[in-house]
UniProtKB/TrEMBL annotation, chain A:
GO biological process: double-strand break repair via synthesis-dependent strand annealing; resolution of mitotic recombination intermediates; t-circle formation; telomere maintenance via recombination
Record-annotated RecA family profile domain positions: 15-190
A single Gene Ontology CC term: Rad51C-XRCC3 complex
Lineage, opening ranks: Eukaryota, Viridiplantae, Streptophyta, Embryophyta, Tracheophyta
InterPro entries, A to Z: DNA_recomb/repair_RecA-like, P-loop_NTPase, Rad51_C, RecA_ATP-bd, XRCC3-like_C
Keywords: ATP-binding, DNA damage, DNA repair, Nucleotide-binding, Nucleus
Subcellular location: Nucleus
Signal peptide: none
Full protein name: DNA recombination and repair protein
Any single Pfam family the record assigns to this protein: Rad51
Gene3D superfamilies named among the record's database cross-references: P-loop containing nucleotide triphosphate hydrolases
One MF annotation (Gene Ontology) recorded for this entry: four-way junction DNA binding
Transcription listed as a keyword: no
TrEMBL record, chain B:
Organism in which the protein naturally occurs: Parasponia andersonii
GO molecular function: ATP binding; ATP-dependent DNA damage sensor activity; crossover junction DNA endonuclease activity; four-way junction DNA binding
Any Gene Ontology CC annotation: replication fork
Family designation: Belongs to the RecA family. RAD51 subfamily.
Protein name (record): DNA repair protein RAD51 homolog 3
Length: 293, 349
């Protein structure tokens, strides 16, 4: 399509296609789920549920469009740990999906930013030519931060090289997302906030002035440059909370005594289509679910 | 009786003259300093008509003063003429009165306005708002134009644009009721019309971006009702791996020149959004708009959006005609609006 003909905004659906998270409460928080033709980032420290959510998305993307899914398969790039097959199996047992859901999740390991860039042409031809029952509609990169953490030094030269790689990768992902109407989800880690005089570490980006997880003040890894590369940013937090004696709430940790619980929340830090909001969630055997308070 | 002559010499229609006189304006000086919208309200006429009357009045008084001093070069304008033209031409409101205020009334036509800020500060929201507001009809003080929206980042969401358009339509009919209580006049714009009047282009690489900017002149000369060109953002594709920085600078300045020419030739507003980046100077990291120093000469006005505590603020960083000032704004479900805390302050006073 020539770039020189404008799109009529009325010629496409007035609501962007979204991929359900598999839970109505979480979907409500994101106005229907993760949008197509857009890059959504999940930021959290480890153990907050990023990978859980990604696996869940890869399954719910297979749901028919009438059930909020994309009726599509997914490409899953994992960078840190071995792919959590067992957890995927477990989630499959609990899901409403028929057939063999893992068959519709294409898994690939990547270990460096360069390798991811090299994969891009292959990804494109895969999207274009592969003939599966379900077309690929979701790309997950879990996590993008791991690709950039080791290779680069903290020198101006390396930082510059790193940020131009950010823009290159993001540009190509967005271009794929546009051409194939894909939802793209990337996960990112957090770094500890080191106090006011530590450069621009504490620069406010998005709806919340300061982010806290596990009782520490944190900020998303990869800095300001990467923040410019995603369309929406969601933050998952986990905080231990001491609860009152008579409070017998769900999700009580099996820790030392019963007066502590983990409070997990998902926060919209910025998104072109969403206002600031937070929703509490729990992680169960069956998956990740929002909690109405 | 002698001064009545003044009105008689104006090049306006008899009915306009009648309206002026019956509203109590018998001399030129009694109304020549009014704004078009004020005069329009007083005479209950559309604003463009009021603007015509004011132009006629200013032409007339200039003839008196300068003793027939014509422009020496054909087509050249005196600064006086330009000043008047600028005052007569409506600006695009941002829907935030405080922000309009520091912008001198809104986004100006014939100028390139650059707006920068961190992710999530509301750049895209402001872009959508401007694309909607440029369509406010002339009768309601707008430009009644269309918008070209160039999306390089994929952040334009059609449902959000619809939301903002819906709020704008309801504001317009409210304003219309205020303006002409005694006339059966209706705003019959539908939110879907507003979406239809946004020419949306999605570009996925810098080559596409350059090609589109080159093509815009042709496009706009075929669509003369386009009154604003929005580029959201100009930066994104130019931050990917440009080995040859001199090439980047050349491309960027070529693009800036084209945009400036568009603004001047077609009398439209150009709004470009920029990202912020960290710049290493004198041993510490500072915030700066992206694309380097030479780019910063490419636009007429420069506005920085930033967080101040929990509030969003806009700051005039550079402008030949505006004084540097800052104002709070907020992003609401309806779009860009005055900051809520500012409302409170005004109410308390």
């Amino acid at each position: 399509m020539a770039v020189t003909s404008p799109e009529n905004l009325l010629s496409r659906p007035l609501i962007t296609h979204k991929c359900t998270l598999g839970c109505p409460i979480l979907d409500r928080c994101l106005d229907g789920g993760v949008p197509c033709n857009s890059v959504t980032e999940l930021v959290a420290e480890s153990g907050c549920g990023k990978t859980q959510l990604c696996l869940q998305l890869a399954l719910s993307a297979q749901l028919p469009i009438s059930q909020g899914g994309l009726s599509g398969s997914s490409l899953y790039f994992h960078t840190e740990f071995p792919f959590p097959f067992r957890r995927l199996q477990q989630l499959c047992h609990e899901s409403r999906l028929g057939g063999d859901p893992p068959d519709n999740i294409f898994v690939q390991a990547v270990h460096s930013a360069g390798q991811l860039l090299d994969e891009m042409p292959r990804i494109e031809s895969f999207l274009r030519y592969s003939k599966f029952r379900l077309p690929v509609r979701l790309i997950v990169i879990d996590s993008i931060a791991a690709l950039f953490r080791s290779e680069f030094d903290n020198t101006p030269f390396d930082l510059k090289r790193r940020s131009s790689l950010f823009f290159k990768i993001s540009g190509q992902l967005k271009s794929l997302a546009k051409r194939f109407d894909l939802a793209v989800v990337v996960t990112n880690q957090v770094v500890d906030f080191m106090g006011e005089n530590e450069g621009l570490n504490g620069l406010r980006i998005g709806n919340s002035g300061a982010l806290y997880s596990s009782g520490r003040r944190v900020c998303p890894a990869l800095g300001l440059a990467w923040a410019n590369c995603v369309n929406s940013r969601l933050f998952l937090s986990r905080n231990e909370e001491v609860i009152g004696e008579e409070n017998s709430s769900v999700n009580v940790d099996d820790g030392d005594n019963l007066r502590r619980q983990t409070r997990r929340q998902i926060h919209v830090l910025f998104a072109p289509h969403l206002p600031k909001s937070s929703t509490e969630f729990v992680i169960r055997r069956e998956g990740v679910f929002g909690v109405d308070r | 009786m002698y001064r009545w002559m003044e009105l008689g010499r104006l090049r306006i229609s008899t009915s306009q003259r009648g309206k002026l006189i019956s509203a109590g304006y018998s001399t030129l000086s009694s109304f020549s300093s009014l704004t078009p919208s004020h005069l329009a309200r007083e005479l209950m006429i559309p604003e463009e008509e009021a603007a015509q009357i004011l132009k006629a009045a200013s032409d007339n008084s200039r003839l008196d003063n300068t003793d027939g001093g014509q422009a020496i070069v054909n087509g050249a304008q005196t600064a006086w003429e330009m000043l008047h033209e600028e005052q007569l031409f409506p600006r695009i409101t941002t829907s935030c009165a405080d922000l309009d205020n520091i912008l001198g009334g809104g986004i100006n036509c014939k100028e390139v306005t650059e707006i920068g800020g961190v992710p999530g500060i509301g750049k895209t929201q402001l872009g959508i708002q401007i694309a909607v507001n440029v369509q406010i009809p002339v009768g309601l003080g707008g430009l009644g134009g269309k918008a070209v929206y160039i999306d390089t980042e994929g952040s334009f969401m059609v449902e959000r644009a619809l939301q903002i358009a819906e709020a704008s339509v309801s504001d317009m009919s409210e304003y219309n009721d205020l303006l002409r209580k005694n006339r059966a006049c209706q705003v019959n714009t539908k939110p879907s019309d507003i979406l239809e009047n946004i020419y949306y282009f999605r570009v996925c690489s810098y080559t596409e971006q350059m090609a589109l900017i080159n093509y815009l002149e042709k496009f706009i000369s075929e669509h003369k009702d386009v009154k604003v060109v929005i580029v959201d953002s100009v930066t994104f594709h130019f931050r990917q791996d440009f080995e040859d920085l001199a090439l980047r600078t050349r491309l960027l300045s070529g693009m800036a020149l084209k945009l400036m020419n568009l603004a001047k030739t077609f009398n439209l507003a150009v709004v470009i959004f920029n990202q912020v980046t960290t710049k290493y100077t004198e041993g510490s990291f500072q915030l700066a708009l992206a694309l380097g120093d030479s780019w910063s000469h490419s636009c007429t006005n420069r506005v920085i959006l930033f967080w101040n505590g929990d509030e969003r603020y806009a700051y005039i960083d550079k402008s030949p005609s505006l004084r540097s000032a800052s104002a709070p704004f907020s992003v609401t479900g309806k779009g860009i609006r005055n900051s809520a805390s500012n409302h409170k302050r005004i109410k308390l006073m």
